């Protein structure tokens, strides 16, 4: 499998075999790291640029550690450190950075931005998150599912909450690609975009996957192998939407009843950060305003034996390392 020179923008661009290759490569790199086998010689002397128009903990740390492990230097550009889209066009920024760096990561807003960066950079560009897709998170999720359940194909994954944006979009795509059964369990108002649903159904018809949209929590979670959720308000959205989201999405909170309905085999997943207690500033503010101590997931579920969220978080680094290595070129062993 040769992905050298490819950008990693969305999983719709990759075949099932290519996606599974990246997951397997990540598992191999994870094993090497656990055994203390260094990989710095793989891309020693190279450098990557990390553009973050949206802040991050896991994505930034994952890219920085992965780059270091592969022997590369990295430059972090936060929203105040780059002129991208302000004083300098995306195309011009791409050509400048592409002349200095071997790869570019972008985490920010519209998918068209990362697509344009890739068009003009001349080097691999990696999507660290856009409004529409979050492909590096998907590789981490699939690796975690494989580790915990021992299989990928045929796994039933239920996503609860706001299914209109990057997380549900990407989960639906990766499930369709890999023959998994995806269910969006939420109010119809929060269902994924119909055009993307139709695209995923076409893919699913070839892989044995299924795509289901339901408003019924019992139906949606029954027998699920994975119950997945995300925050109800995404980065960049105004605070004014909190009232509406809490009212309309509270029925789709992941709680013990939902997990019991799924069954003892089910694992709980969340891309983090999660509002499951009052140990954050925003959590305390929301509690004071709305009188709730938990949102998309209860603390009981988050801290339960079924929760694999921190394994999932660790796997961000291993899978991002795999993407960087594969697209920059895997050295001959």
Structure explained in plain terms:
This protein has 333 residues and is α/β, with parallel strands linked by helices. It is 45% helix and 13% strand. It has 13 helices and nine strands. The chain has helices at 16-34, 58-69, 90-100, 111-121, 135-149, 166-178, 194-207, 217-221, 242-249, 256-262, 281-290, 299-302, 309-328, and strands at 47-52, 73-77, 103-107, 125-129, 156-160, 181-185, 210-214, 226-229, 267-270. It has a five-stranded parallel β-sheet with strand order 7-6-5-8-9, with helices on both faces. The protein has a four-stranded parallel β-sheet with strand order 2-1-3-4, sandwiched between helices. Strand 3, helix 4 (111-121) and strand 4 (125-129) form a beta-alpha-beta unit. Helix 1 (16-34) crosses helix 5 (135-149), helix 3 (90-100) packs across helix 4 (111-121) and helix 5 crosses helix 6. It is globular and about 50 Å long. The model has no long low-confidence stretch (mean pLDDT 96).
Brief overview:
By secondary structure, the chain is α/β, with parallel strands linked by helices. It has helices at residues 16-34, 58-69, 90-100, 111-121, 135-149, 166-178, 194-207, 217-221, 242-249, 256-262, 281-290, 299-302, 309-328; strands at residues 47-52, 73-77, 103-107, 125-129, 156-160, 181-185, 210-214, 226-229, 267-270.
- What is the overall number of helices? 13
Provide the succession of SSEs: HEHEHEHEHEHEHEHEHHEHHH
Residue windows where pLDDT falls under 50 for at least 5 positions:
none
Termini separation comes to 14 Å
The largest β sheet comes out as:
5 strands, parallel
pLDDT averaged over residues: 96
Portion of residues in helices?
40-55%
Number of strands: 9
Strands of the widest sheet, in order across it, are 7-6-5-8-9
- Strand portion: 5-15%
